[in-house]
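INFO batch 0412 | record 1 of 1 | parsing
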Amino acid sequence: MANNETRELADLAEVFKALGHPTRLWIAKNLEGRELCVCDLVAGTAEEFSSISQHLNVLKKAHVVEGDKRGKHVFYRLAYPCIPWMIRFMEARDEFRHLPPEEQARAQEEQRRQLMDYLMRQKE
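INFO prediction complete | emitting tokens
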């Protein structure tokens, strides 16, 4: 049975589940700091329109992306601007494994600092 803390994390778990596909990770990375329409995402992935639409529906349902309809197009943006940073941080783990422990700690701290700087600029 779930306790209060795990129940509160259920929405966040849905975000991670939604990101659990390579195409959806690609979409999240490519929405960093900008809005794109489905046609842009189709062009970038070479996947079918219907496939990208399904991936976007998963991301919308988990509140990872938000969309605005403008004319005939819907433009999507990230609801969590930190997701691309999280992805990059996780991608870098393989690179960090080859560093001595002190350098791993420095590199991770630098990434954390950059993320915090980025998030603070978003509030301005």
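INFO post-check: DSSP finds eight helices and three strands in the chain.
INFO record closed
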